[in-house]
TrEMBL record:
It comes from Kribbella orskensis. Residues 7-254 form the CN hydrolase domain. InterPro entries: Aliph_Amidase/BUP, C-N_Hydrolase, C-N_Hydrolase_sf. This is Amidohydrolase. It holds the Pfam family CN_hydrolase.
Length: 276
């Protein structure tokens, strides 16, 4: 389904913890803020319920994020909070004996789409099972696909969503500063540059709107970048939070922006898959 009018999009930068009631309260405040701003699509970070891992430099982990099944009452509460708004958020999903780093897209009517993180950095592999697909789905604000942080490092992930018709890509992140060579200033950190580079490249390559949310603050040995943003289909950043907590809000006519970007060069149509 296409979008026929301007859409207000919010990309959230915020911190979350192991305290699920605290996280739920923060989610409620952010959704309420988005509603006041007449946001139609609100993208919250990865690990918004329960926080992220404390350390990616080791394979053994303690104090893991709490794992929630899809029918957990806390998930139901977030769905109810969303109301008429389309809301994407991340959490640790319990599925049988496995845990997944999962993103849900919901409205008050229920779950619209789910994505389990496919690409895992080494420190995650001991904790989470890997997802096995990238699928777009229809929502009240347009056809949407989701990625979770490290997924966006791989161009094939966003490309698969765009080929599946995604006009909007929500990338939910728990993206930290460099673990091996942290810079004294966050904006000089290697991971800060890569975070922005991947966001802008994935949008421009596929000529879609990309909404990138991220954690802020610290948990364990991890310090998160923030830098949540909305990126247009030409790779231009139209709203961002920088490193501070907040919501980057942009108003775009999604269909018109995409048609303008594809007016002469249509990347998806001009691919040559037979030679790749």
């Amino acid at each position: 389904m296409g979008v026929t009018k301007a859409l207000r999009i919010g990309a959230v930068a915020a911190g979350f913890t192991r305290d699920l009631e605290f996280d739920l309260s923060r989610l409620e405040a952010l959704i309420r803020h988005g509603r006041r701003e007449e946001v139609g699509l609100l993208v919250l970070p990865d690990a918004a319920l329960g926080g992220y891992l404390f350390d990616l430099s080791r394979s053994d982990h303690d104090d893991l994020p709490p794992a929630l099944e899809l029918d957990d009452p806390l998930i139901a509460k977030v769905i109810a909070m969303a109301g008429e708004m389309v809301v994407c958020f991340g959490f640790c999903e319990a599925a049988g004996d496995s845990r997944y780093n999962t993103a849900l897209c919901v409205t008050g009517d229920g779950i619209l789409g789910k994505h389990r993180k496919v690409h895992q950095p080494p420190g995650e592999r001991a904790v989470y099972a890997a997802g096995d697909r990238f699928e777009a789905f229809d929502t009240p604000v347009g056809r949407l696909g989701m990625m979770i942080d490290y997924d966006k490092t791989f161009p094939e992930a966003a490309r698969a969503l765009a080929i599946d018709g995604a006009e909007l890509i929500a990338c939910l992140n728990a993206w930290p500063t460099s673990i091996t060579n942290r810079a004294p200033r966050m904006n000089e950190d290697r991971q800060s540059r890569l975070f922005d580079l991947y966001d802008r490249s994935r949008a421009a390559e596929n000529q879609v709107v990309l909404v990138s949310s991220n954690l802020t603050g610290s948990i364990g040995g991890m310090r998160f970048l923030g830098q949540s943003k909305v990126v247009g289909p030409g790779g231009d950043i139209v709203a961002r939070t920088w490193s501070k907590a907040g919501i980057a809000i942009a108003e775009l006519d999604i269909r018109s922006e995409i048609e303008l970007a594809r007016r002469v060069l249509r990347h998806l149509d001009e691919r040559r898959p037979e030679v790749y």
